[in-house]
Amino acid sequence: MAIDPVCKMEVNEDGAAGKSEHGGTTYYFCSAACKKAFDEDPGRYAR
Ligand SMILES: [Zn+2]
Q: Which of 1, 6, 7, 36 has the most Cβ atoms closer than 10 angstroms to its Cβ?
């Protein structure tokens, strides 16, 4: 399982609604809305 960096929910990598790469790390999202929020401001959520 991965942690959705936006809402902190656990996300199954295979069933993720979306994913984004930032700084060499792949992040998985529970919904398109979370992915959109991350893509708009990755630095706010990524560490
Ligand atoms: Zn989410």
A: 6
With b for 16 or more beta-carbon neighbours within 10 A and e for fewer, the 16-36 pattern comes to: bebebeeeeeebbbbbeebbe
Distance 30 CA to ligand 1 centre (A): 4
Hey, how many other C-beta atoms are within 10 angstroms of the C-beta on 47? 8
Q: What angle do CA 37, 41, 34 make, to 5 degrees?
A: 15
Q: Which residues surround ligand 1, an ion (CB under 5 A)?
A: 4, 6-7, 9, 30, 34
